[in-house]
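To start, one record:
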Amino acid sequence: MLRIIKERLHQKYRTLDYPRQKPALSPRYLGRPTLANVECGDCRACFEACPTGALLPDPAGPDGRARTPVLDMGRCIFCGACRAACPKGAFRFSGEHRMAVFRREDLLVSAAPDPQADAPAPAYEPPFPPRDYSLFRRSLKLRQVSAGGCGACEADCNVLGTLA
């Protein structure tokens, strides 16, 4: 036990001062998906490429032509297969790491109404006044998405909240 305490004192305090300091993300991290409003016609390449069925058909526009599908981020594993398969470039990934929402419906991402709109995703603004959460400032907050596997990642995540 003494060895563990000595090691903790040696390592010191190593948490990130979020949100004042942005986390260092891997260059391979795709981030929050954004969709451009394009005419898809009869193309179904993105639907066939998506391994989880996270794409939903968008109702046809006023001209009756099929538009960019709706992306369900609750089912998406952020693999980028839709982006690679789409010949019209309707799918982009913004690199934005903030994806928390309060309602399941807010996980549905639709295309921007303006085809020239290449603006980044809007910053997250909570729908309620800020509260004092200083009691939970240093507590562990973790969301793990399981995309199938042997369960080793889940076991590793379970021990993250234990001491020593």
